[in-house]
Amino acid sequence: QAAANPDRSVAFYSQDMNQGMQERMRIESGLRQALGNGELILYYQPKFEIGSDRIVGAEALVRWVHPTRGIVPPGEFIPLAETTGLIVQVGEWVLEQACAQAAIWQRAGVPPFRLAVNVSAREFTASLPERVADTLARYQLDPSWLELEITESTLMHDFERVTGIMDHINTLGVALSLDDFGTGYSSLSYLKRFPIDTLKIDRSFTTGIPADGSDCAIAGTIISMARQLGLRVIAEGVETVEQLDFLREAGCDEVQGYLYSKPLPPVDFERGLRENWLLVA
Ligand code: C2E
Ligand code: MG
Ligand code: MG
Ligand code: MG
User: Fold this and answer.
1) Which of 118, 209, 260, 269 to mutate to test the pocket of ligand 1 (most atoms within 8 A of CB)?
2) Can you list the alpha helix ranges (DSSP code H) found in the chain?
């Protein structure tokens, strides 16, 4: 039928495209305003060492408190911010806010844990290490409080350039982890060439444990490879005791997921620290 009336289908097509584009522009200008209006907030999700159940870290995850739509999850604006370049300003705000928060905990005498910040490929530029160093200095924050989570896509750019940036970050004493590990397409040989501290097994594999044999095999292989390479390994998206049992047996170091805690606003996260997570010896 489309062939019988080509004009019409073209008209529908461009109208759809227009709507998509208008929607994107609406979100982008909204996000730009949100940055200025203080509508972004960070939630924090704890990471635990398997075995000791000690809190060993937390991940900062951005949320947009939209005036009419309520709390908007990052999946609805981060990918767009990455294509428009606005992610750079979002990322600057996130790093600033995370360091400010960690410095508050440091001053309050909270036993140190690493606070991880997600960094998109577009933020991973030569100016990043200096910005990190400057932020740490301004807050007098010990670098052992900070970790950056990057994805494999970041590593697929110019090797020399990326290695230089990673080495510089490493020199600062800031940890680096490889997020969503197992979902990218890059060669495994980069694992020995880049200064990475931790592999994060992607949630899509954790979800299949223990029912899906392939997911179990992939998670198990990532864990044993990480151990042989001297890297730490964490599984994200752990929701059940069965998953935890499998990961413990397989030798996984750390876990993060709803089984322990969802990402929480600062007040609730601090209550968790006070009432639960810091009490486990
Ligand atoms: P990610 O870095 O892989 O973060 C893990 C996501 O899994 C988070 O979603 C977290 O809430 C969710 N999650 C954790 N445990 C569980 C679980 O047990 N079950 C389920 N179903 N989900 C779990 P969130 O907060 O919606 O963030 C989504 C993605 O948005 C992040 O994936 C990250 O790629 C991106 N993102 C979030 N904050 C930032 C940021 O500040 N900067 C950048 N560049 N990206 C960010
Ligand atoms: Mg992450
Ligand atoms: Mg992840
Ligand atoms: Mg993931």
Assistant:
1) 118
2) 6-37, 78-84, 87-107, 128-139, 152-155, 159-171, 190-193, 203-208, 213-228, 241-250, 266-272
Which of 252, 183, 192, 181 has the alpha carbon at shortest distance from 220?
252
> Strand, helix or coil at 210?
coil
3-state secondary structure of 219: helix
Pocket around ligand 1 at a 6 A CB cut-off: 45, 61-62, 73-75, 78, 87, 91, 94, 118-120, 149, 179-180, 203, 236-239, 256-258, 263
Q: What is the DSSP letter of 277?
A: I
Q: Give 15-42 pLDDT, tens digit per residue.
A: 666 778 888 888 889 999 999 999 999 9
Which ligand sits closest to the CA of 207? 1
Cα–Cα distance measured from residue 12 to residue 56, given in angstroms and rounded to the nearest whole number: 53
CA of 57 to the centre of ligand 3 (A): 14
pLDDT digits (tens, 9 = 90+) for 37-74: 999 999 999 999 998 999 999 999 999 999 999 999 99
ipTM value > 0.95: yes
For ligand 1, atom 17: residue with the closest CA:
237
Cα dihedral value 165, 183, 102, 257, nearest 10 = -170
- At how many degrees (to 10) do helices 87-107 and 6-37 cross? 30
Residue 59 CB-density burial (10 A; 0-12 exposed, 13-18 middle, 19+ buried): buried
